[in-house]
């Protein structure tokens, strides 16, 4: 398999900020399209899946990490993953517990196949088309799993959005401490945190967008989505300018 430049970003604080914001947008945008615009889960799922396929094909066409392309895929993955879970629960009447188990097993299978083929799950090793394919399949399942887990705690177990967000936030904090102070495996720490940021983002999205009668802040799906999309756009522009500057430095240094 022909190797390429690394196709994914470095794991920095900005990466995690955009990731949480993207997961929140996935939750609120999916609700906006299917409920507020009354497109329905089926139509919304088909539309978003088609758009996701187009941007994914463009992503595979690129030869290196491009912030705009990468984060557009992540946002669309978040929306599509949310819709997959919502369709299973709302249309097919699969319980949230069952859905959580299904996606947990599916994700483990993806990781097992990925590792058996490539002998690594590390982010910095996404430098072939095959590895990138495994990567994006895993990402999609983390979003679907995170949606199911977030709804399971907040709704099925009736913990509410605030308590659910605190639980997931505390879990991520434990992983962070374990990595920095107790030498937790870096790849394991990354994927555990990546999985948990999805239900954290979903809980935050529900907390902000849901009306006060449902335990939310009442900002609505439109307000929450637009606010977070604006922040994501600003950060992606920053990353794009930073990347452009770093690429041009070696050229300028020759003069």
Automatic annotation (TrEMBL):
Nucleotide-binding keyword on record: no
Alphabetical UniProt keywords: Membrane, Transmembrane, Transmembrane helix
Keyword DNA-binding listed: no
InterPro entries hit by this protein: DUF347
Pfam families, sorted: DUF347 (PF03988)
Residue ranges of the TM segments: 32-56, 68-84, 96-114, 134-154, 160-181, 188-205, 217-241
Protein name listed in UniProt: Membrane-anchored protein
Species, as recorded: Brasilonema octagenarum UFV-OR1
Lineage of source species: Bacteria, Bacillati, Cyanobacteriota, Cyanophyceae, Nostocales
